[in-house]
Design a protein that fits this description.
By secondary structure, this protein is mainly alpha-helical.
Length: 80
Amino acid sequence: MKTRIISLVNQKGGVGKTTSAVNLGAFLASFNRKTLLLDFDPQSNLSLHLGVNVQKIEKSITELLLDDDVTFKDVVINTY
């Protein structure tokens, strides 16, 4: 199956990006599609919507971008 990338972006806050991403991800996952959601929001709103305790995250997307020793696997959290 072909990989598809869907991005929801807008500089303005409060326009439904996080809500749309959570619901789109849940919809795709309900059809057994492998789904990866990336939370670039400094407030971690997407992670909070998915039930992730952001206080216990050791490494985030920030460390992945800034630290060469952090790998993609270090920051992925499975919520299923």
